[in-house]
# Entry
Amino acid sequence: MSPARPLTILRTVAVTATLPLLLTACGYGSEAEKEDGKTDGAPTGGKALSASEVRIGYFPNLTHATALVGLQEGLIAKELGGTAIKPQTFNAGPSEIEALSGGSLDIGFIGPSPSINGYVKSKGSNLRIVSGAASGGVKLVVNPEKIKTPDDLRGKKIATPQKGNTQDVAFLNWIAQKGWKVDPESGKGDVSVVRTDNKVTPDAFKQGSVDGAWVPEPTASKLVADGASVLLDETDLWPDKKFVITNVIVSQKFLKEHPDVVEAVLKGTVKTNEWINANPDKAKASANAALKKETGKELDAAVLDPAWKSILVTDDPLAATLKTQADHAVKAKLIEQPDLAGIYDLTLLNKVLKEAGKPEVADAGLGAK
# Structure
């Protein structure tokens, strides 16, 4: 995604304080104003729920389309009535997990790897995954003059967003399946894995310091617009062409104290995902407008259109794929085998889905008891 999704539980220290929680600065409390003058998080009227406000975090990234569109269109705020939303944007998963664990964030849109990271580091005490949000949106893009087939990657320099993040783990697993060797710590081996911030990767590609990248959208499409070609869509590696790229998490304290607020947010995300899928062009424009408010710049159509097509918004957290991603990180020797029992609590989501006449979703045996 949006983009880096770190699973940096290093094997040598398991889940200690050496996790890179401060690798990327985050922007707290960035409230954007709607065209009608109201902030995205302003109460829509009516009685407040059990909390006067809810602090919701997300990345200004297309893989967080549910948050971008849900806030932009007021679909989440509508369900909260008199409870205000305090939106907070982040640039990387560790900063968002730090905010959630530190009590300055209640609910967050985030990738699978930092979800696992945060849950294991806190020994299962800080968060629950309460919904899915998006699948897909990750590609391996390369310099077509240097790389024409997957075998051509040997000896080349390929960027991933961050050591141990979701894309880094996926690329290391793919390399291992080809029988190639790469040291997970240094990134050196048959392929050089160059950990590079997504904001920097396009320039690195233009300068020739990397030959390609395994990255989320819209970085992948930005690289294609700069002359790269798509060598592999990660979607093609997964059963049913689906894998979790964005979840909705909540602090366990907030979930216990304000289940009505969490339920209202989930009603908003379910309705947002339904609206996005029913109105893809309007939703794409809405997401781009939200990005412009957050970053000061909208995406060009040459980047936005292909990136948007590769992302599927979904209420299903695709829990089995999160479990598989954790297994891949273990095989890559980036983490010890994590205990993920209880990481999911889909009770409120399934209540909302049932009331909406939609099928319930599963937690792959990792639900809270």
User: Anything to note?
Assistant: Confidence is low (pLDDT under 50) at residues 1-39. DSSP finds 13 helices and eleven strands in the chain. The longest helix spans residues 259-278. The radius of gyration is 19 Å.
